[in-house]
Amino acid sequence: MPLSNKVGFNAGNAFWSWNECEDDEGVKSLIHYVEQHAEILREQFIGIINNVGQSFIDNKSVVEYFEVSPGFSIWWMSLLAEKSLYKSPHITDCIKVLALEKIIKESKTETIELYNIEPSIVDIISTLSKKIGVSCIIKSIFISHKVQTKRKFYHSLPHFVRGLIFLLRNIKSRISLRSTDQFEWFSGKQATYFFSYFTHLEPTVFSSGHFNSQQWGPLPDKLIDEGFKLNWMHHLLYSKIVPDNHIGKKLLLLFNTDTKQQEKHAFLDSYLSIKLIFRVLFKWFHLFWLSIRLQGVDKNFECKISDANLWPLLKEDWYTSFGGAVAMQNLFWFELFDVALRKLPRQKVGFFLFEGQGWERAFIHAWRKHEHGELIAVAHSTIRFWDIRYFDDIKRINNRFSKPHADRIAVNGPIAFNILIEAGYPIEQLVEVEALRYMNIVPSTISRNPYLHKKLKILVLGDVMPKFTSCMLHLLGKLPESILDNLDIVVKSHPGNLIVKNDYPNFFFTMTDTAISEILNEFDVVYGANPSSASLDAYLTGLPVIVDLQEGTLNMSPLRGLPGVKFVSTVSGFKVAIKTINSWSNTRNRDKYFHLERELPRWQSLINSLSNKNDII
């Protein structure tokens, strides 16, 4: 393919592809280079974001400037501080720009030629080139082939308008969850608080009438058996089991009439009120005013860490976080947590699911403000190298505007523990516990014959992000009939992203909604999305796993760097993977990844320590 049709750049006597995942003849992969220098580039990007937060506006740091309540800055809830590759896809391009800068400086090239690169990235590279004395030549112009859609029209609207649209949508979708009744929470020594997502519920919840979440596994029942009273506050997420507010409220009523009478459940949105909506609006207008009066914000993205100014790629995150839809969403979180935790009787212990999301900062701040007790962040899933939501600059700033942190972090295995230690987390802040959501994984070592069936039976695991699921299914649809005829494809949707079968007419497949742990033994191989943790279940049973790497994306898989896994981004790569399955390693040691003792001895130890410390029982 001629260079004029590729996306990338010429530097150091080599052509670098911007999106391809592997080196090819005459073409080097920038993604591959990023993986080779991953630790340096990740640390560099995190440092740049930290520098933005500590840079000054009107004699105040950015963190101080966006104070919305005494001692709390909305900066910590912004997309910039959150650093989520799910919500901010341009972070990947930022990492690539830093890699490009490293290539230019190490190769000492005098000229860089750009081919079909997006304008915002070209702006950064052009400015960088001038700063370091390198000639930048644009050889071919990027042409967008995206068609006009409702979503694209929405994103063309001013952030102010998008913020108001979010306000109206949020009120419309959540107002029916509002409750005017005074909720009677458990209090006293045996009361324990949980904040959780109302999703990943076991399919038996309707028949049993008992709350059972895959994310918390056997822990709630263990606490109940020991006499604890559990206060559950939920964020309602729609799924196949809970498709709307009506079903959600019906389930909540069912749980609250459980005969054990040791759990109480409420939705966070039940605290929605007219007064709260007006407080959100007032703070949002104030934030918007603060953001529009700023001049030269791009200068705050200049720092000593890099000569590249990433403002053109990150400005949308800035504007939506401080005067758009994300700001509106975050202020709803902030106000809801404030009123909910103010009305909650003092809790000596609280647990929440730790994912590094922006709302967690508002929750922790409200927990501290209303003087509740010890707070444990539960890292319930895997912690992946490129999920930089979990990582901050090691040089933490300690003042009244510091990022809110839980007292301790419960990690579910040696790998997560070591990753956080290497990232600079204080060892005394971490406590190892059993992996609640992975308790159903089969014994650690299992030998398999990959060809158990006449046809190769493949389980396709969808992701919560539609684009990753769509990429996998479209790749399967491009396979030649000679291969498809020998495959038996079964697709399982992620509960937060239900697949519509008719959207993929190019190949035949069936669908299942059975729990992964119950069906893995029926398959020969699993095909999973790049960022999904679901593939790990299959990997630890000894099944071969193929992971789809969408072109241009970083390797977000929890299986990154492990043997017995094939990463593919093309049809040819997939064909090679399924033809070579017999040569893959099929021995796994689950104890290397998770603590999975069913008696939960580590959780018991943590509970005992909390009981002794806080005199809970």
Q: SSE layout and pairings?
A:
Layout: E1 8-11, E2 14-17, E3 28-29, H1 30-36, H2 38-54, E4 56-57, E5 60-61, H3 62-65, E6 67-69, E7 72-73, H4 79-82, H5 90-107, E8 111-115, H6 119-132, E9 135-140, H7 150-156, H8 159-174, E10 191-198, H9 205-208, H10 219-225, E11 229-236, H11 245-256, E12 263-267, H12 274-292, H13 311-323, H14 325-343, E13 349-353, H15 358-369, E14 374-379, E15 408-411, H16 414-422, E16 430-432, E17 456-461, H17 466-477, H18 481-484, E18 487-492, E19 510-512, H19 516-519, E20 525-529, H20 534-541, E21 545-548, E22 565-568, H21 571-579, H22 601-614
Parallel strand pairs: 2-3, 8-9, 10-11, 10-13, 11-12, 13-14, 14-15, 15-16, 17-18, 17-20, 18-19, 20-21, 21-22
Antiparallel strand pairs: 1-2, 1-8, 4-5, 6-7
The dominant shape is globular
| Topology, number of strands | 22
Structural class of the secondary elements?
alpha/beta
Alpha-carbon distance between the two ends: 71 Å
Short description:
By secondary structure, the chain is of the alpha/beta class. The protein contains 22 helices and 22 strands.
Describe this structure in words.
The protein has 617 residues and is α/β, with parallel strands linked by helices. Helices cover 38% and strands 16% of the residues. The chain has 22 helices and 22 strands. The strands form five sheets. The protein has a seven-stranded parallel β-sheet with strand order 12-11-10-13-14-15-16. It has a six-stranded parallel β-sheet with strand order 19-18-17-20-21-22, sandwiched between helices. Strands 3-2-1-8-9 form a five-stranded mixed β-sheet. Strand 11, helix 11 and strand 12 form a beta-alpha-beta unit. It is globular and about 70 Å long. The relative contact order is 0.11.
